[in-house]
Amino acid sequence: MKLTPEETQNTLLQLLFERGPVGARNISLNLVAEVWAETTLRRGDLLDAIVRLSAIGHLSIADHDGDTRLSLTVPGVIAARAARAPGDLAWGEHLHKTLLPGQRQRQVPASEGGRGRRGYETGRAR
Questions:
Q1: The pTM is what?
Q2: Is the Cβ–Cβ distance between 47 and 38 less than 8 Å?
Q3: Compositional bias (Basic and acidic residues) at which positions (predicted)?
Q4: pLDDT reading at 91 higher than 90
């Protein structure tokens, strides 16, 4: 699924917002990547959203004992709360009902010397 940069940023803001209060809980980049992998969204879009959100001050990136941690700043929390989807739905509601359908991407193993390819499987994400 291809989202606009703004939709991808809103999605990342919402996923982080749902997982902890500002500053009190830094979230591991590895955990964010795992959650993102459960969606049908592209990993490259995650990296783009992280860069864009940190550049505008909505996301803080820190290192803690070799683990990269992400946390929303106060402006990031405000943006997550204010994000609206088409039809004036809250972004979180739109995210769970529309953008995260019961399909998820998985990497199909490569044949010897191959690079693999993306495949889809149906069913609910974990």
A1: 0.68
A2: no
A3: 114-126
A4: no
**Distances in whole angstroms, Cα of residue 82 to Cα of each of 14, 94, 113:** 10, 13, 48
CB 87 within 8 A of CB 23: no
Instruction: Output b/e per residue, 106-120; b: 16+ Cβ within 10 A.
Output: eeeeeeeeeeeeeee
Q: Which of 61, 67, 72, 62 is nearest to 14 (CA)?
A: 72
Q: How far, in Å, CA of 76 to CA of 89, rounded?
A: 19
Tokens of 39: 């969606």
Best CA proximity match to 67, nearest among 34, 42, 31: 31
93: Cβ–Cβ under 8 A, 6 or more apart, which residues? 85
* 54 Rama sector, left if φ>0, alpha if ψ -120 to 50, beta otherwise: alpha
Domain spans, the chain: 5-102
21 pLDDT band, cuts 50/70/90, is: low
Please determine, looking at this structure, whether the domain spanning 5-102 carries the CATH number 3.40.50.720. no
